[in-house]
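Data availability (excerpt). The following record was deposited with the supplementary files.
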Amino acid sequence: MTVWKTSRRNFFAHKGRMALSAVAVLLSVAFVCGTLVFTDTMNTTFDKLFAATSADVTVSPRSPEDNDRLPGNGKPVTLPASAVEQVGKATGVKDAEGAVNSMSVTVVDSHNKNMGSTTGAPTIAGNWTKNELRSMEITSGHAPRGPTEVMVDADTADKHDLKIGDELRTIAATGDINAKISGIATFKVTNPGAAIVYFDTVTAQTKLLGRPDVFSLISVTAESGVTDAQLKRNVATALGDTSAYKLQTQKEAADANKDSMGSFLDVMKYAMLGFAGIAFLVGIFLIVNTFSMLVAQRTREIGLMRAIGSSRKQVNRSVLIEALFLGIVGSVLGVGAGVGLAVGLMKLMGAMGMDLSTKDLTVAWTTPVVGLALGIVVTVVAAYIPARRAGKISPMAALRDAGTPADGRAGRVRAAIGLVLTLAGGAALLAATRADKSSEGSLFLGVGVVLTLIGFIVIGPLLAGFVVRVLSALMLRMFGPVGRLAERNALRNPRRTGATGAALMIGLALVACLSVVGSSMVASATEELDKSVGADFIVEPAGGNPTLLVDQAVKSLESVPDIEHLTGYKVVGAGLTAPDGTTENKALAAVDPTYQEDVRRETVAGKLADAYDKDAMSVGDTYATKHHLKVGDRLTVAFKGGETAKLRLAAITSDDVNIDKGAMYINIATAAQYVPADSLPENMMMFAKAEDGKEKEAYAALKDALVKYPQYEVKNQADFKQQLKDQIGQLLNIVYGLLALAIIVAVLGVVNTLALSVVERTREIGLMRAIGLSRRQLRRMIRLESVVIAVFGALLGLGLGMGWGTAAQKLLALEGLGVLEIPWPTILTVFVASAFVGLFAALVPAFRAGRMNVLNAIATD
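Predicted structure:
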């Protein structure tokens, strides 16, 4: 009980000195809990949506598309309308209605502005049915009553200021549908961002599906007392042969939809938790430094405790109990802050177009438990080493104020271990750069990153002694005696300086590594484009939109003047059987013969032009080597949705490329010969070549031709390169934003180290002031000490990160990204910013030091 009382008294007596450590724990726990609450809320939102929109039993057509993700022809797979009557006669069926559902649509207003989501949520068109009343209600106007009327969801109407009477154009593979808004329907549950339009049933069938006698699915409602499982069995009996159908209960349909979303949510969840883990790792250094300095400042107090009978274990336990209090306070506050962070993320997603209601806010009981456990365990573990050192202090040494025992042998052992780890990590990184396979190299890279990181952390005090002296010679000596004092303060405790710099090093190492990888990817792709792409323009869906190029847009492009040729690019699914008898599902690139001018491909055998002959094709050299193929061999191609053909292998292309790596080419005419017109996929993209000297005119004309189709965009090579750069830049910015938490915690570590160092040196500062050091000089000394520590951490981090990035780029070279580019502007900016971070971190400690009363400081024990 005495240990508990002493620890509690010490904790509250030094609560100001522990504040920044508590903030570090708070931030890290908040990020973990915020991530868990945010992803759990998204799961809840989608669970409610899927449960509300699913019928008791859903009957849908079974198709090859269920098992692959190859682009189709933009037309939903259908089942016969006669099946609705069959299902309706099943025992226990209260109601069966045919539904139309298409996500291969784009909805635009009268100004050709896309009404779809900007966050990747789908645009859905269908017919208004009784099943929709499960999740929606008409809050304005009425349901569509004919081909000129359409109903829209309230969220889309609000976002785009739509009202009843406004005209919308729905662009589908079967043609355009022009209709005026007759009503607005509001979701009873949260709509995460999908844009939905409804037509009457006949219009939806003829305009979206292309036929009046088919539906996309059948929604079945059970009579009272009939379970979904019973209803499913009864419907199967009524249908007889169910090989062409897929039957799902409400739970099965909801679970299937959840599974399709689950992988995305899991990736986001674990990525964010990974960054939270980095923040925790950085926070460990802050906590270790805090307790190391507190123990040093309480050396005499610990000696008195030992002198009056306290054992080593009791002293050790006292420090750990203080850490426990710190962990509890920081973690409890962090759990609350995490809920607030989750709400903030939901508001941010709402501003970006994904609506998440706070009514669905989900705080599972595991979230606070995980947050508290992590925060407390990490804090106590981080405080263990300082606590152990405190227990080793002998009473006599402590009473002489000798401080914590300095073990020179332990320092030498630590330096040796650090060197071994660093060299082993460097060897692993070197092995990664020389690997022949990316899988093998990735293993070496991972081992190298971990070992070099741990090695640099362990060897930090040794590096601090050398690097700080070099930095001081370059940066501090010009400030005269004040600069030399700052240097000596930074070198006074190399272990402390090393730990403080290592916290900053971790975040900046990741920043540097990712910057090198990102810049190298852009440079490699740019070089590949310059070398391989001969087309002047590329037409493709805008913003990653999955919608393919509809025929009406293609016809508009075909009428553009000043175009030498226009090349279509379709992806056709097929079962490919090699002469050795092995069969694999492959995606064939069905293109116009002019494609060989648009994208230049080297061949290792045969001529690529011959691959576009009738009943001919090409394969990549990887596939050819695997199956021992040579030019002239015959391959059996079973086209999905079409016939089986024997195609002659006319060319083998090199796979030593990044664009179209492994592609197998056939002529679009060959695909059309064996695949019916209504099953032939739409163009995934198109390429265009302008007539000589007409590039500007052709560029403008192509853009004008697609004004009515905002879901597509025309890019010249400069646009394509800029888009690639922007996409990677956006991804890196997101990562940098997540790493900012770790860097903030590292900055808190610098502030904390300086603040506690000022307290530790109170008497010394008083004496220095007494012999003539001015307040201005004192503040400058502390600022310079902070800058040199921050720059030390930055040098280690940037150097380590560039090493990681270089090794990673060598692995990417195996995948065709062979250009290494160091983003020197980014590296230099981060380096300079680190110096400013040091200045910022020193503001409060320097101000407090300057305000010390000289006599009181000298009298401090």
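Summary of structural features: The chain is about 55% helix and 15% strand.
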